[in-house]
Design a protein that fits this description.
This is Ubiquitin-like domain-containing protein. The chain is an alpha+beta fold and about 170 residues long. It has one domain: Phosphatidylinositol 3-kinase Catalytic Subunit, Chain A, domain 1 (Ubiquitin-like (UB roll)), CATH 3.10.20. The protein is built from five helices and eight strands; from the N terminus they run βββααββαβββαα. The chain has helices at about 40-45, 50-60, 85-100, 145-160, 160-170; strands at about 1-5, 10-15, 35, 65-70, 75-80, 105-110, 115-120, 130-135. The strands form two sheets. It has a five-stranded mixed beta sheet. A hairpin with a 2-residue loop joins strand 6 and strand 7. Helix 2 (about 50-60) crosses helix 4 (about 145-160).
């Protein structure tokens, strides 16, 4: 999500990339689509963050973005997980985000010598921010109508945090 500033009518404009990052190997990508919020600049400066925005800021402060790349398809998904997440929790989040079927396999792999070995399920992320995965092939992130609405609500909540509001006021 990238803020583009205020429009003439006083609404905020954001550009969101919902999909895979393009790569030289040809991973599919969804083009950015603009959306506008309805807060005016004067409202943004004087309005205190809502309870939802405060909760969103707490969640954002406690989480990190992890990039998971499928080794066969070279598709990528970027997920937000707790700083203390285990590999098992990352795997579950990937399967959930991608909407993979119940029997799907998602193996997180680490490079070891000339090949790859699975990470232990209970290993915490630590400083790891990029993971290779294998298993059930996936090519993109498909959002249902309900998930799309939830995604936009998450963006709105994140845009109402104190950090974002301070940048707008500056």
């Amino acid at each position: 999500v990238r803020g583009e500033g205020l429009l003439e009518k006083g609404s905020l404009r954001f550009t969101c990339r919902a999909g895979l990052a393009p790569s030289a190997q040809g991973a599919q990508s969804v083009a950015p689509s603009p959306s506008s919020g309805g807060a005016s600049s004067s409202t943004a400066r004087s309005k205190a963050p809502s309870g939802a925005a405060q909760r969103a800021q707490t969640v954002v402060d406690d989480q990190v973005v992890v990039i998971v790349k499928h080794m066969q398809t070279e598709a990528q998904v970027w997920i937000r997980v707790s700083k203390l997440a285990t590999i098992s929790e990352v795997r579950a989040k990937v399967a959930s985000t991608l909407g993979l079927p119940k029997g799907a396999t998602v193996r997180m792999l680490q490079q070891c010598g000339g090949g790859f070995t699975p990470f232990p399920d209970k290993q915490t992320l630590g400083a790891i921010r990029t993971l290779n995965c294998a298993g059930t092939a996936w090519y993109d992130v498909t959002l249902s109508e309900a998930r799309s609405k939830e995604f936009l609500q998450d963006i709105l909540a994140a845009s109402e945090t104190g950090t974002v509001q301070a940048k707008i006021a500056a």
